[in-house]
Amino acid sequence: MKLVLAGAQGWYYTEIFRTVETLGLTEQVIFPGFIPGDELPDWYAAAEVFVYPSLFEGFGLPVLEAMACGTPVVCSRAPGVSEVVGEAALAFPSHDEDALATALHLVVGQPEVRGMLSTRGRIQAARFSWRRCAEETLAIYQRVHRCV
Questions:
Q1: pLDDT at residue 21, as a whole number
Q2: Measured between alpha carbons, how far is 37 from 56 in angstroms, rounded to an integer?
Q3: What are the residue ranges spanned by the domains of the chain?
């Protein structure tokens, strides 16, 4: 199994590259860089599990995208992520590396857990849509406008 660390180079990227090299993991860790939006569903669908150990998020769109593709999700209980995944992911306390490892072991080692998370994830992701987002945003603007 390979670890894919996708995304544009950001904070601490040099340290991450150095650590992977120091540990002799260059054959096990893939750095594809930025992935265009139209390619993301293929990457999500090909993954055994999507791991999102974020400490804080405004919304958690990547976990929603992964769930919509049927990819099991393991994520931190960070604000902005927990609200999106509900009960459809294995969540662990932020900064708890042992809990992350346990969750990954469970998902990778038990096909029934992967299947359950995949099903729950698709159901949870279906609760969100851009149309609903626009309608609810418009309703808020209308309420605020009436108060002014």
A1: 96
A2: 22
A3: 35-147
